[in-house]
Specification:
The protein has 334 residues and is of the alpha/beta class. The protein has helices spanning 14-24, 39-48, 66-79, 93-99, 107-127, 166-175, 187-205, 226-244, 250-255, 259-270, 283-289, 295-306, 322-333, and strands at 2-6, 28-31, 53-56, 59-60, 84-89, 133-134, 139-140, 158-163, 178-181, 213-216, 219-221, 290-292, 312-314. The chain is built from 13 helices and 13 strands. Helix 3 (66-79) packs across helix 5 (107-127) and helix 6 packs across helix 7.
């Protein structure tokens, strides 16, 4: 199992963050597309690192087009000598339409076509195929030699797709190299919903299941003292409550018989009573969604739940010393 950690999107902090991650033994650095573009800090991370992977977790696909995304992914992968992983996500319709000013169609169909268009572009660049992709939403039929990258020695970058529901999970299994599970998932949900969808998608694509990777970073509440653990638990409960208020994640709660909790959390959110939301997260819900306890208990519990399920994860070293962080990462790799 590979273990990553997020780095700051602040370009002035990238060098220090990457140096710290390498010293602690992390396998990769991630940047999410939140307040800044994720590709610029990862470009600096490539310059200041030697062997760690670099990943967008995630970049908003529908804010761009397949060609522009293909160029970004190619350039970062070539510059980092094959260390880049393009993690993609859809965002939600209001953000794509109102924030990015881009069209929104049927998300799973659009994403399947978006990634397949990128594959067609990569086939042109790396295999010499003629570019001739015509889909429902995207059309790419022109690639003069003048605009074609020539630094292709490190091949095409891997593509991971973020998904929670079975439809988008199938798209990931059909078109991508890996699946990024949302933190608002559970061991049971992965086993009963995601794994069957992955198997169906890989079968449809007629590709080997073992070539597909699952990336999942569960929520963790830990610390070196009881006070630190309690503080971390409060933060995790807030996070569970926030995610749980989102209608798109109701399916996860419903699997456990907690569907009405989503309605209650959503109501409090709409009434701006956010300080009350975490009070609805009891210990059963907390321990179902999160790994909780002293730092020496984190790795064993992590492996017990997910050791046979996932290939890559992320561990945020909140409240832990450098020595303890290195210990947890080493244990997770065994």
């Amino acid at each position: 199992m590979k273990i990553d950690c997020s780095i700051s999107p602040d370009l002035t902090k990238v060098k220090g963050d990457v140096s710290r991650l390498q010293s602690l033994g992390y396998d990769g650095a991630r940047v999410a597309e939140l307040t800044h573009d994720p590709f610029l800090p990862l470009t600096l991370a490539a310059e200041y690192s030697e062997d760690i992977d670099l990943m967008t977790s995630v970049a908003v696909a529908f804010a761009r087009n397949p060609m522009s995304m293909a160029h970004l992914a190619h350039d970062l992968n070539a510059f980092s000598k094959g260390r880049f992983i393009l993690g993609l996500g859809t965002q939600v319709q209001p953000h794509v339409v109102k924030r990015f000013g881009m069209p929104w169609y049927k998300a799973p169909r659009q994403m399947r076509e978006f990634i397949n268009a990128m594959h067609a572009i990569f086939d042109c660049w790396y295999e010499g195929d003629k570019l001739n992709f015509e889909g429902e939403y995207y059309r790419h039929t022109l690639m003069p030699k003048t605009f074609q990258p020539t630094n292709t020695a490190y091949g095409r970058p891997k593509i991971y797709l973020s998904a929670t529901g079975p439809l988008m999970t199938k798209v990931a299994a059909e078109t991508a190299d890996g699946l990024i599970m949302h933190p608002f998932s559970t061991e049971r949900y992965i086993r009963e919903v995601n794994l069957p969808a992955i198997a169906e998608g890989r079968k449809k694509a007629d590709v080997a299941p073992e070539d597909f990777e699952i990336d999942y970073a569960p929520m963790i509440a830990t610390g070196q003292t009881e006070e630190e653990i309690e503080k971390s638990i409060a933060q995790v409960k807030d996070r569970i409550a926030f995610y749980g208020s989102t209608p798109g994640y109701r399916m996860v709660l419903e699997l456990h018989g907690w569907g009405e909790l989503q309605s209650d959390l959503n109501r409090l959110m709409r009434e701006h009573r956010t300080s009350e939301m975490a009070e609805l997260i009891d210990d059963e819900i907390l321990h179902t969604f999160a790994i909780v306890g002293e730092h020496e208990k984190i790795a064993p519990e992590f492996k017990r739940r997910y050791g046979d399920l996932i290939d890559r994860s992320a561990f945020l070293a909140t409240g832990l010393s450098a020595e303890n962080t290195h210990s947890v990462i080493s244990q997770l790799r065994l």
